[in-house]
Amino acid sequence: MLKKTLPKTLKTLLSYQRYQSLRINYKSWQNIDPILIYTMGKVGSTTVEKSLKSSSLDNPTYHIHFLTESWINKIEKRYEKVNLNSDQGHLRDSQFLRHKITASSHINWKFITLVRDPIRTYLSHLFHNPTVHHPYLLGENDKLRTREELINIIEEKLSNFDEGIDYINSWFDQELKISLKIDVYEYPFDYTKGYQIIDNDHFDILILKLENLNNNFNQAIKKFLNCDTNIPVKKSNVNQNKKYSNAYEKVMEEIKLSPSILTQVYSSKYATHFYSDLERQKLIEYWSQVSKIS
């Protein structure tokens, strides 16, 4: 029974409604492989979640960004700092699932993770929740700084790019490698297909490239889950906090990054592993121009 296996500390962290939902879904894990969408933020994971949950699949599906205790604690402290304790439900899910993955060796977990152009991911992440994650973007009364100030801040941050500590470039090493003991960089990524399936004794992992999602999602999911169900992409419109969406779109259109910054970003282990030479060259050309169409 779940009540006997779930630590008391986790029971107190989970809201009753969320706990009951997880408890009910857990019963089906014995017969149906659970799907865990486990990604860094702002790479299209909500679209994947919506697509799977809109299909006729019976697999219980969950969506989290962190499984390591260090990152769960770090994000939890950020929320507490700005008094957003009520927004920590996804962290409780992470705690619950982290425990079950460790304790349930008999369950065949199906992990889906995604990658996306690192510059676009970075910009999207900046404007998602600056109050919690990037308060330096805010001025008086918690309002965003001017567009010119924002672009200058972004250029300065990127000029100090260090892939060893950068969130996007270090996520797979700090999360997947630690929590699942799998190094995705040991498995060549297929640029042509735009996805990669890693078969492991305990975990199966599907890596999707967001830029190829419209073309390969159905094919990749059917192969990954070994099913015949057609699963179309259901795009999500929650990519940006509406409060900051206008500023985000303007910055995306107007920012022009120097070749030295772009060369450094697109020479990283993350970029070279998931994007071909031609793809990276096109991205460098795109971000070195102004008046882009996002």
Secondary structure topology:
Elements lengths: L1 H4 L2 H6 L2 H11 L8 E4 L6 H9 L7 E4 L4 H13 L7 H15 L5 E7 L2 H11 L1 H4 L13 H13 L7 H13 L15 E5 L3 E7 L3 H13 L19 H10 L4 H7 L3 H6 L2 H11 L7
InterPro entries: P-loop_NTPase (IPR027417), Uncharacterised_NKWYS (IPR018831)
Nutshell version of this structure?
With 294 residues, this protein is an alpha/beta fold.
Number of extended strands: 5
Strand order of the largest sheet: 2-1-3-5-4
The profile of the biggest β sheet is: 5 strands, mixed
Poorly predicted sequence stretches spanning 5 or more consecutive residues: 1-5
InterPro entries: P-loop_NTPase, Uncharacterised_NKWYS
What descriptors fit this protein?
294 residues, alpha/beta, five-stranded mixed beta sheet, 5 strands, 9% strand, globular, disordered N terminus, Uncharacterised_NKWYS, P-loop_NTPase
Describe this structure as you would to a colleague.
The chain is α/β, with parallel strands linked by helices. The protein is built from 15 helices and five strands. The protein has helices at 2-5, 8-13, 16-26, 45-53, 69-81, 89-103, 118-128, 130-133, 147-159, 167-179, 213-225, 245-254, 259-265, 269-274, 277-287; strands at 35-38, 61-64, 109-115, 195-199, 203-209. The protein has a five-stranded mixed beta sheet, sandwiched between helices. Helix 4 (45-53) links the parallel strand 1 and strand 2. The termini are far apart.
